[in-house]
Design a protein that fits this description.
With 161 residues, the chain is α+β, with helices and mostly antiparallel strands. 24% of the residues lie in helices and 25% in strands. It has 4 helices and 8 strands, in the order αβββββαβαβαβ. It has helices at 5-20, 94-102, 124-127, 141-150, and strands spanning 25-29, 34-39, 42-48, 70-78, 86-89, 112-114, 137-138, 156-160.
Length: 161
């Protein structure tokens, strides 16, 4: 079978993803609006991210517009998200639930790494310079495709200020 130039380019791209696959840790530095994909302690990819509207500090309760801090797991992919593709973060853990209950509130949930709304178009670059989510971590749509290709369900995510 003969390979066309487009097919050869795709194969190289897929091969690059295979070589980067098995990312073993995702780190988020909220203070820099950056996400890093690590494999054996080395950064293999980084992204500019958008966070919740009030990024500083750990998520306290549903609706506070904060992105959680701590160590969680990326536990499933959600293809039918209101945003372009998503991977769920295992927030809240038991400590988050207890903390929110002590305040008489719900901890919330449905915290995801996700793309942008499908109609973002040219505004995607602008949106990535703002913190506009309700506590999630947002990437550009093409970056979300790459993220899902490189990060397996079950990968830990560390989120810090």
């Amino acid at each position: 079978m003969q390979t066309t130039p487009a097919k050869a380019k795709l194969d190289k791209s897929v091969q690059a993803h295979v070589n980067l696959a098995q990312v073993d840790l995702v780190k988020v530095d909220k203070s820099q609006n950056k996400m890093f994909l690590l494999k054996q302690g080395k950064i293999v990819k980084s992204y500019r991210i958008a966070l919740g509207g009030k990024p500083k500090g750990h998520k306290q309760y549903e609706g506070d517009q904060r992105t959680p801090e701590g160590r969680y797991t990326l536990d499933y992919i959600k293809e039918d998200s209101a945003f372009y593709r998503a991977m769920h973060i295992s927030y809240p853990n038991q400590a988050d639930i207890t903390q929110a209950k002590n305040q008489g509130r719900s901890p919330g949930g449905q915290i995801m790494v996700h793309g942008q709304r499908d109609r973002a178009g040219w505004r995607a670059n602008i949106a990535q310079r703002l913190n506009w989510t309700n506590g999630c971590i947002a990437l550009k749509n093409h970056e979300m495709d790459e993220f899902i290709a490189l990060v397996d369900v079950g990968t830990p995510i560390e989120i810090r200020w």
